[in-house]
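hi! just following up on the protien thing from before. the input was this:
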Amino acid sequence: LWLFLFNLIPAFPMDGGRILRSALSMRMPRHKATRIATIVARVLAVGFVVYGLMSGAFFTAMIGVFVYLAAGSEARQVDQLQELAGVPVRSAMRQRFWTVSGPTPVHEAVNGLIAVGDKAAVVTDVMGYTGVVDQQELWALVSRGMKDLSLRQLQLRRPEPVAPDADLRTAVQPLRTGEAPLIPVMEGTDIIGVLDMDAVNAYLQLRLAQQQWSQG
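and the predicted 3d structure came back as:
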């Protein structure tokens, strides 16, 4: 019961803070609601730290530090998503990527990923795009003695491809939730690029650098 009630404190990103943000989002844009919820959370977090240090409740002070840092992290993520609104996928996609065919054995796919320095690859077969694989999945199969299986024998993750003109903020959702390591960008039946979080983060860093240059 104590944990339940504590979790309802409006300190974002705890559940109480998320409820506060939801309530605020009914009257204002989500990113603005997040900013207000973050300010409330940080004020409460500072209160936790001060109370914990003065009363000797160091665990409470540690919770305050965690809430302060977590609130800032959540706010940055929302701000980044807001930066991606209205940006076409083609602005952040990678045009150089690795494709591996369905009949390729697992161990060859691992070696190929290491050789090209990619974390994940697009799998294609006779009918075209069939899914994606990443290094961790393939290493796990090798460690279980399944290195000779072909990729077409695996249950591959198959994230829905996106168009190059699709909204980037919407397109990155499967990447942010961990549903897929990358998303193919397709124009008709052709894969013209891939989208992954490294590419998105690089785009955001470049955009920030351009903004700083124009202001400076």
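The first strand starts at residue 99 and ends at 101.
The CA atoms of residues 9 and 60 lie 13 Å apart.
cheers
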